[in-house]
Design brief:
The protein is α/β, with parallel strands linked by helices. It has two domains: 2-108 and 292-320, Quinone Oxidoreductase, Chain A, domain 1 (Alpha-Beta Complex); 118-264, Rossmann fold. The chain is built from nine helices and 15 strands.
Length: 321
């Protein structure tokens, strides 16, 4: 039997809306759900072009690694898929119920589908990768991206005493104050001025959430470390994304001259069981209505022209089969 789906047949090209075989459960741990909504996240794009480190490299593929579906009992479930070429951007998807959470019947599915993935990076980092304590200060590098915007809000909700948001997009940066940022710093413009601003603002910061890496981190890390009056005050640097590059040059002196702990947070550094265990709390948190989330419902049939189309700042595309 067939269903409609977004199908990638060549890496680097947008998915095409076409008929595709309905996946069939092969074990008791698999469940077929009717997909209600699936968000278009950067992680989805990188998997679809074959560049994400978890990509199976198998074609044809259906993109999408999370979504909301209706199970055989007609209950709503938010789900995360294992590494697979049969993703969530289809009329039906094969899920593992253990990697899902049942949602209330009145859940705003667009909001949850749009926000769970970008929210999960900072939520998991602060709750599972470090011993984050209320009152600590947080610097977010790349705060103007979707995940960064959620990180500002989540850090505040988890009790951060001071949140510093740093990014390049001036319009999005200006909007972060309303989302909870206490200080905003532009990463555009003169590098020396940026270094001074970052160093002064982050002189006593406790945690850095880094969505940039690459050349941005190579400049930011020494700027922060050299401005610390108390070099023995702990600083935990959490690497989550690599929007500015996959690698950095890390001089040994950076690690010896200050009490710096460098950790990564992502698929693999946190187990699938730990991530699944956080789903109920995060889904409930997003459903409180305390977050600013601009979800745009888009028919899945429009996946090809929508895939690379520009969106307004802060908007998140959610495909609806």
């Amino acid at each position: 039997m067939l269903m409609n789906a977004a199908v990638v047949r060549l890496f680097g090209k947008p998915p095409v809306y076409e008929a595709f075989d309905i996946p069939t459960p092969t074990t008791p741990d698999e469940m077929l759900v009717d997909v209600v909504a699936a968000g278009l996240h950067p992680r989805t794009r990188s998997s679809a072009n074959g560049s994400h480190y978890s990509s199976t490299g198998k074609l044809p593929m259906i993109p999408g690694f999370d979504g909301i579906g209706r199970d055989p009992d007609r209950e709503l479930r938010y789900f995360i898929l294992a590494d697979t070429h049969l993703g969530s951007m289809a009329e039906q998807a094969l899920i593992d119920p253990r990697r899902s959470v049942v949602l209330p019947a009145d859940t705003d599915v667009l909001t949850v589908a749009a926000a769970m993935n970008p929210a999960m990076s900072s939520w998991i980092a602060l709750r599972k990768r470090i011993a984050f304590e209320p009152g600590q200060s947080v610097l977010i590098l790349g705060a103007t991206g979707n995940a960064g915007q959620m990180a500002v809000q989540i850090a505040k909700r988890l009790g951060a005493g001071h949140v510093i948001a740093a990014g390049r997009d001036p319009e999005r940066l200006a909007a972060l104050t309303a989302l909870g940022a206490d200080t905003t710093i532009s990463l555009a413009g003169d590098p020396a001025t940026t270094d001074r601003s970052l160093g002064d603002a982050a002189a006593k910061v406790d945690v850095v959430i880094d969505y940039l890496w690459g050349v941005a981190t190579e400049r930011t890390m020494p700027a922060v470390l050299t401005h610390r009056a108390d070099k023995g005050h702990p600083l935990t640097w959490i690497e989550i994304g690599s929007m500015a590059g996959l690698q950095i040059t890390l001089p040994s002196a950076w690690l010896r001259s200050a009490r710096l702990q460098l950790v990564g947070s992502g698929q693999g550094s946190v187990s699938a069981e730990e991530i699944a265990g956080e789903l109920p709390a995060l889904a409930a948190e997003i459903s409180t209505g305390a977050y600013t989330i601009d979800a745009v419902a888009t028919p899945l049939s429009q996946v090809e022209p929508t895939w690379n189309a520009p969106v307004a700042p802060g908007q998140r595309i959610v495909f609806v089969p």
